[in-house]
Amino acid sequence: MDEGRRLPKRPWDSCREVPVIKDERTPWKMIKLLKIISLSVVAVSVFGFALCSKASFLLLITLSNEGTKTLPAEQKPVALLCIGCAIIASSVFLFVKSLWKACHKTSKMPDKRTVAVVLFFEFLVAMGAAILTIVAMPHLDIVTNVTILNGVAVLSALLQVITQCTAKERNRFLVPSITAFLLILLGYVLFLVLYIMKDPTDTKTIIWVGLAVGGSFLVSFNWWENYFRLISENSSSVFLKALCRDVKTCQNMLHILSSMLRIAVTAGVLGAYVPLDKMDWDIVTSIPSRETKMIAIIIGVQLISSPLCHWFSVVACKMHALRRCFILPLYLASLAVMVLFVVPVIVYHQDYRTSLNGTAISFTGYCNEVVDGRNQNLNGSVFPGLVLDVTHTLCFLDMSKTFDICMLTGSAVCWWLGLVLATLHLWFLSLYRIQRTQDLFMGPYEGGFLEQSLLLNARFDIQTTEKRKKNFKPLDSVKVFLCATMWHETYSEMMNIIISIFRLDRYRPKKEGETSDVIFEGHIYFDDAFRDVPGSQGRHVNEYAEMLVDILREVYSIFLDIDGDVFKRQQQVPDQKIVTTPYGGRLVFTMPHGNSLTVHYKDKTLIRHKKRWSQVMYLYYLLGWKVATKYFKKWEEGEGEVELEHDFEREKHNTYILALDGDTDFQPAAVMLLIDRLKLYPLVGAACGRIHPTGSGPLVWYQKFEYAIGHWLHKTAEHVFGCVLCSPGCFSLFRAAALMDNNVMKRYTTKASKARQHIQYDQGEDRWLCTLLLKRGWRVEFNAASDAYTNAPEDFKEFYNQRRRWGPSTMANIVDLLGSATLMSQRNPSISRVYMLYQLFNLAASILAPSTVILMIAGSFTVMLNIDPSVALVLAVIPPAIFLGISFKIKADTQIFISAIMSILYAFVMMSSAIAIIGNMVKEQTILNPSSLFIIALACFYVTTAILHPQEIGLVCYGFLYIICIPSAYLLLSIYSMVNMNNVSWGTRETAPAAGAAQLKAAAPQTKAQKAISTITQFFSRGKCCRKLCPTGEELILSQDFQTVETADPEPQPQNSIVEDVRQPEVEQSFSQGPVFSCPNQSWITQLQSLSDDMRLREDTLDEDEGQFFRDLMTKYLEPLPEDKQKQKEMSDDLKDLRNKMCFIFFICNAFWLVVTFTLQILDTSIFIRLPKLDINLDSTGDYIYIDPVGFMFILSFALLVLIQFIGMLGHRIYTLIHYVAFMDTETMSDHQKQQQTLKQITDKESDDLDDFMFPSVRRRNPGDGSLV
Predict the structure, then answer these.
(1) Residue 525: beta bridge partners?
(2) Of 811, 800, 997, nearest to 903 (Cα)?
(3) pLDDT, tens digit, for every residue of 941-961?
(4) Which of 250, 623, 903, 905 has the smallest C-beta neighbourhood within 10 Å, fewest atoms?
(5) Per the UniProt record, which residue ranges are transmembrane (predicted)?
C-alpha cells in the first residue's frame, strides 16, 4: 500500500457546498478592450502631437528665412517673435507652476553656490536655444533643420560615458553611448563640410553654420542634472553631493529663478537680433489679416501640441508603456516630419517636370524659374506657397549632385542614430507601479525641440551587465494588518469577509525564509461575544460567535483543498489555537498559505464595546504593542538611538491598517491598489476604495445610484481639488505613521462628555478620524479602481435611521474643519482656502436642501395644476411644515411611518411633474424654459458621467427612481434627522437573527401601529442590516453616503460616554436565555471545541507581557463605562437642548430662503430677470420667461458646482485608468499562480471555474483583468 495515500475520514462525504469565491463582478473583456484602446490613443497622441509641434515650429523657422515669400521680408520679425514665444512657453508654464507651489507649499531657499551653478547652466542653455533657433536655423535647409536638433544629444552622450565610467562596473550601455557621441560628432563634421565647401568664401554662411553648431552644443547642457545626480553618488566631492542634494530639495525656487533667466535671455537675443539684421519691430503692429491668421494658427498649434505631447508622454510612462507609446512614437516623429516636408517638395518638382513635356530641367533651374521667380500671391491656398518656401531652403544645394545628397543624408542619419543610441537605455528603464512625474523626467519639456527634450529628460540609470537595476531600489516591504469589526452579522455577511481574507492569504502566501513585498496579518474584533449561561463555569460565546467558528472551518477546508484533486482533498483542518485573554478570548488561525488570522472575542463586562472602542483596541495593540514597544525594548537594551529612531520611523511608514466591516467583500487587487497609493506618496495618511452596495429591492436600487453619484462626482472632486474628508471604515487603508501622529490616535480615545461630542465622535467615527488626520497635515485619497462590496439596507426604517445618524455627524465634522480652515490651509499642503470655500458651499447646499425641494415641488404644482406660483409655494410648504411640527411630539417609528406614506405621495408628484414637463415641451414645441432645460441638462449630465464609468453604466437605469425619491431623501429625511438628533444610539443589528443559528425567542406581539408601519415599509424592505460608507450630506443632487443604525421605541440614552446604553428589553431577554447544553458546567473554550472534530482548537496561554499590556490598556482607555442614571439624564437633556438649537438654525435658514422666494414672487415682474422665450427653431415666440434673481443665482451656483465636480471627475478618471493599466502590467505572479497557468491547459472548464477564483490579471497577466471603475 502506498504510504502517501490515506483513506479520508469520511470518504462518503466528499461532496462539498462551495460558496462563490472568484471575482464574478468584473467585466474582463470590456476592460481588456479598454486597455488596448487607451494605449492606442496614448501612442497616437504622442506621435501626433510631437509631429504637430515639430512641424509648426519648423514652419515658423521656414517663414523667417530671408528668401521665403509667403511672409514678406518686412514681416519676418513676426515669425521670429513667434519662435521666441515657442521657446519660452515651457518656461512661462514652469514659472507659474513653481510660483503657485512656492506660495501654497513649503519651499526652501537654495544655497548661493547652487544658485550660481544652476543659473550658469541655464544661461548657457537659454543663449544656445535662442541663437540656434532665432539666429542660425532660419538660414539652413529644411533637412538640416529637422535633424540638427537631434545633435543636442552630444553632451548627454558624453556625460553618459563619464557617468558609467565613474561607476567602475561593466556597463551594458557604455558602447552605445560612445557610439552615439561619435555619430553625433560625425554628423557635425559632415554638416560643416557640406556648407563650408559649397562656398568657402561666403563668410555669412560660415557664421551661420558656426552659430548653429555652437548653439546646439550649448543647448546640450540642458540635461546636466540627469547625469550629475549619478556622478555625485560615485564621487568623493562634497560640493557635488551638496549641489545635487540642494537642487532636489529647493526645486521650486530654482525653477522660478531659472525660468525668469530663460525668458530674459531669449527676449534679449530676440530684441538685439532684429535691429542687427536690419529689421523693424514696428511691423508687428501692422501685419495684414491674412498673414496674421496664418501665423496665429501655426503658433497656436505649436503652443497647444507641445504641452499635450508632454502630458501624453508622461501618461505613457506611468502606464508602463514606454516602448510602444513613448520611445517609438518619438523616434518616428522626426522621420515623419522629414517625410512631411520633403515629399511635397519632390512631388511639386516632379509635377513641374512632367508639365514641361520632356524638357530637361535641373533642380537649380527649377529653383530659379519656379521657386525664386514666383510672385507673391495674396489669395488662394497657402499650402503651395509653403511648399515652395520649403523648397527654397534646399535651393543652395545642387540636388542633382550625389555628393551634396550624400553629405546631407549622412549628417541627418548620423544625428538621428546618435539620438537613438543615446536614449537606448530607456528601453530598459525600470519603473515603480506608480511613478511620480518628477522621478520620471528631470526637467521641463522644450517646445522648440520637443521629442529630444522628452527623451533626454527621462531618468538615466546605470545598468550593469550583472544587474540591470543597480540604481533602481525596490520599495520596502510593507505589513498590512487587516482589522474587521463584527457584531451581529448574518451568515452570508460573515462568509464574505472571511473568504476575502483567505483570498489575500492565497494571493500573497507567507513562506519561511522568503521576503515578500506585502505581508498580511488578519484580525477580527467581535463585540459583545459573550453571554451568561446558568450552571456553567463561565460565560459562553453567543450564537453569532459560534457561527463565525463554523464559517472559518468551512472556508479553511475550501481553500485547503481548492488546488487538490478529488482523492487528495483533506477533510481535516489543521489544529488551531484558542486562548483566554483579559478582554475575553481569542482564536489564532494559521491560514493555508502561512498568514495568520486572529479572532478577538470581546466580553463587554471586561472591556468597553462598540465600534470606536474596538478600533482603539486594535490601534493600541497592533501599533502600540506590536510596533512601538519592541523599539523601546531595544533602546532599553542599549542599541543606538539614532538607528532605532530611523528604523522606527521607517516601520511606521511601512505599516498599514486595513479597516474593514464584518460584511465587506473585496478582491486582493483592491487592497494592492490602495497599498500602491500609500507606498509611493509618503504624505498620504489614508486611502479608501469604491464602495458598492449590494442587495435587492427599490431601496437598494436607489442607494446604488446614490452611491454611484457620490463616488463619481463628490469624492473625485474632493480627491482632485483637495482631500477626501471621509475614508469609510468598511474598506480603508491607514498609514501607521499617520495614526500614531500627535493628536490623532491619542485624541481618538476621548470619551464624549458633551452633547456636540456625541454627535461628532460617536455618530460618525470614521469621518472624525479623518478629520484628525487632515488637521495634522495628512492627505486622504480615493481610489476608484479599488472595489469593495457591502450589503445595503433593504428596510425603510433602517435606511432612515442610518441617515439620521450620519447627517448631523457629517455637518459637525465639516463645521469643525471650516472653523480651522486657516490653520489647515497652512498645515495641510493638499487643502487650500479655495477648497474650504468649496466645502462651505457644499454645506450651505446641504442645509438649504429641504427648502430647495419645496421650491421644486411648488414648481411641479404650478406645471401640473396651472396655478399661481405663490399659491403653489404655500401648498408645497404646508405638508412638511405639519410633519415638522408633529415630529417633536410623536415617536420615531411613527415619524418613519408618516415619512413612508409621504415619500410615496411625493414620488407620484415628481413622476407626474416630469410627465407634465415633457408634455409642455411637446405642446409648446420648445425646450427653452427653466424646467425643461433643467431636466434635460440633468439627464445628459448623469448619462455622460455614467458613460465615463463603463462598468457601472447600467446604474443609470436607477436614475429615475433616484429623482422621484429626492423629496424623501432631502426633505423628509432632513426633518427626521434633525428632529431626532438627540438620539445617539448606534442600534445596528441588535434585532438581527443569526442565520443558521438556533432560533431566538419570538418577539412580542405587534401593536396595530407597528403592523401598519410594517405593511407600508414592505414596499421597500426585506429586513437586512448594513452600514457602510461615511456620509457626505452635501448638495441636493449629490447624495450623502450611508451606514445602518437602529431605532428603539423608547428614547435611547447616550452611549460610549458616561453611561452604558440601554438595550431593548426583548433583545436582552432573547440573549439571556441560551440553549441547553449537555454539559451544564462547560466554559466557552469547551463550547467551541465541541463544535466540530474537523477543526480541533487546542488551548494555549497568552504571553504574560502581552496580557499585562491588555490589562494596562483596559485600565487606561477601555474600562466598561459605569452606569450613572443622573449623568445619563443630564446628557439626555443636553442633547435635547442641542437638538432644539440646531433645529432652529437649520429650519430658520430654510424658512428665510422660502420667504425671500415668496416675496419675490409677490412683487411680480418688477425685479425679475426677463428672458425671451424661443421655439424649437430658436425663433422668438413673443413671450418671456421670468426668473427671480435669487433663483437664477442659485441655479447658476448649482451649475458651477456640478461643472467643478465634473472636471474633477474627468481628471480622476484619467489617473485611475493610468494606475489600473500600470497595475495590470506590473503585478507579478506567484509560483502557485504560474502552476495554475500550466494546469489550465490540461483541465476542463469545470475544474478551471473552481480554481479561477483569484484576480485573473495576476494569474494570467492578461491586460484586461481587474476592476477599473
Answers:
(1) 485, 600
(2) 800
(3) 888 999 999 888 889 889 889
(4) 905
(5) 33-57, 77-96, 117-136, 142-161, 173-194, 206-224, 254-274, 294-314, 326-348, 407-432, 836-858, 896-919, 931-948, 960-979, 1144-1169, 1189-1210
